[in-house]
Design goal:
Layout: H1 2-17, H2 29-36, H3 40-52, E1 56-59, E2 63-66, H4 71-74, H5 76-82, H6 90-109, H7 114-127, H8 133-149, H9 154-164, H10 168-177, H11 181-197, H12 201-222
Antiparallel strand pairs: 1-2
């Protein structure tokens, strides 16, 4: 494993230094192993590991390439790890969301367009006042995804998106068991939307914090 780690570090150094750039094809295995002072086996293991986290793209019959290194692509590895969460870690995911999502919502206040705001409002209107819990949770995911995307920060967008999955079950559970959960969620969504229309970043941040914290507080009380 130590030899493989060394091989990974050497390939990473080539990418960080610019010797290998996004989209570049790696030299032949024998040439690269010799140039880096590695065995072909350790190089092969390093390439396999880096392909799993979307740094490298191994194309059968064509060669190995550096990927686009796009943040969304690289953060797929986070989603993979998140899929293995345990139910007792949901509060930790919510705590991280409570840090990141309000910041993204505040950033969106200055950037989100009127058409995007109208689309979000239209989706809330289509839901009506008494949607099913499943409809509300699906809409909630899209509502926040649209706002975070409007922040203009693709890394932040990918992080928040990756962290949303583990909290979905908790939100459905809350909607089924807490009497006013649906009405409260709709009220908070409209408050966030109003703050965004007013270009009030701090109000948008505050309402997003309240929105996530209410789920977190409910979950703490039920565990």
């Amino acid at each position: 494993m130590a030899v493989t780690d060394e091989a990974i570090e050497k390939i990473k150094a080539m990418i960080v230094s610019g010797a290998l750039r996004p989209g570049d094809r790696l030299p032949k295995e024998s040439e690269l192993a010799a140039a880096l002072g590695l065995s072909r086996n350790s190089l092969r293991e390093a390439v396999r590991a880096l392909s799993l986290i979307r740094i490298l793209d191994v194309r059968q019959g064509d060669g190995t390439y550096v990927t686009s290194l796009d943040p969304q692509l690289l953060l797929e590895a986070l989603s993979f790890v998140v899929d293995f969460h345990r139910d007792d870690t949901v509060l930790e995911f919510l705590a991280v969301r409570r840090i990141l999502e309000p910041a993204a919502t505040a950033m969106a206040a200055a950037r989100i367009g009127e058409q995007q705001l109208d689309a979000l409002a239209g989706e809330l209107d289509r839901l009506g006042d008494a949607p099913s819990v499943e409809e509300l949770v699906a809409s909630d995911l899209e509502f926040h995804r649209g706002i975070v995307r409007a922040s203009g920060n693709s890394v932040l967008c990918s992080l928040v998106d990756g962290l949303s999955g583990p909290t979905t079950r908790a939100r459905i559970w809350r909607g089924l068991t807490q009497q006013d959960a649906v009405a409260r969620t709709l009220h908070e969504h409209r408050a966030i939307l109003a703050a965004l229309r007013d270009r009030d970043a701090e109000a948008a941040r505050s309402w997003a914090t309240v929105h996530i914290a209410s789920v977190e507080q409910w979950l703490r009380s039920t565990l």
